[in-house]
Amino acid sequence: MGALHEPVLLAETLELLAVRPGGFWVDGTVGAGGHAAEILRRSAPDGRLLASDRDADALAAAAPALAPHGDRARLVQADYRELPDLILAEEAPDGILLDLGVSSLQLDRAERGFSLKSDGPLDMRMDQSRGITAAEVVNRTPEPELADIIYRYGEERASRRIARRIVETRRRTPLRTTLELAEVVRSAARRPRGRGIDPATLTFQALRIHVNRELEGLGEALARLARRLAPRGRLAVIAFHSLEDREVKQAFRSLASEGFRVLTRKPVRPGEDEVRRNPRSRSARLRAIEREVA
User: Fold this and answer.
1) E strands in 201-259
2) Reduced to 3 states, what is the DSSP secondary structure of residue 281?
């Protein structure tokens, strides 16, 4: 991520995936292609990669990074929850990677509506071809349901107060931009800026998760992907908030009773040097599981 879209936990992820020459690999959230390019490099000369993302902009950004590897890489627009069915047409993967975070490509482009720091339309959709926007959520959702979304997905203690302030504001004029919403949330959260995270961060997180259904079917998708692995194949997942990480942990714990070996007793976290280089990595948590030989 960062200015150069530095991939988070790159060395640790590739080590846990045990990427080697040859084989078939899957990156289900390719983003700018940083992890995928390294998988292709380490799997040379004949390793193959299926790289997918539901964000068309991400696929366009990843294409130049993967182009030097020729036809060893195949790019597909798809939600990672669709991957188990896509993989059925291929051989069993030797490794699958999911990076569940919002990419710098999305955060750094104001028109995508993810950022607190630059003004843009309240969109927040990872796949802009379908689904509801964040503007529709904040302007149409009844106050109790809106408070529930903010509390459930943002773990925001001031959720009721924030929802009430949003509803009061939208009665006068609809909320249309990220900075408009951020100021409304900050005024309701009653927490000073400059101490810890921005007071609007948790609400923006909650809206993004709701808009993109980020937790919906996550555990089931992980189980289905793990069952597609080749013997000794590995699934690595990078999560960026506690709700996602909890789903990953529970899914892996359940798979342990089906002939899978959890490789990370505790999540792998970025070191001080990486966080210094790339502050967006600070909340990353990496877990991995291996399919044992039957």
Assistant:
1) 234-239
2) helix
Residue 238, strand partner residues: 99, 286
* pLDDT higher than 50, residue 2: no
Phi, psi of 177 (to 5 degrees): -125, 165
- Compute the distance between CA of residue 135 and CA of residue 290 in angstroms, rounded to an integer: 41
Write the single-letter amino acid at 218: L
- Full-model pTM: 0.91
Residues of the chain with CATH 3.40.50.150: 2-100+215-291
Q: Which residues make up the CATH 1.10.150.170 domain(s) of the chain?
A: 114-212
Distance CA 220, CA 213 (A): 13
Q: What is the largest CA-CA distance in the chain?
A: 63
Among 20-24, 25-29, 184-188, 280-284, whose mean pLDDT is lowest? 280-284
* Span 114-212 CATH architecture: Orthogonal Bundle (1.10)
User: What's the CA gap between 18 and 39, in Å, rounded?
Assistant: 10
* Residues 6 or more apart whose Cβ sits within 8 Å of residue 170: 138, 139
Q: What are phi and psi of 290, to 5 degrees?
A: -125, 140
Q: Which residues partner with 287 through β-bridges?
A: 237
CATH topology of domain 2-100+215-291: Rossmann fold (3.40.50)
CA distance 256 to 178: 42
> Any idea what DSSP says for residue 230?
P
- Tell me 91's DSSP state: P
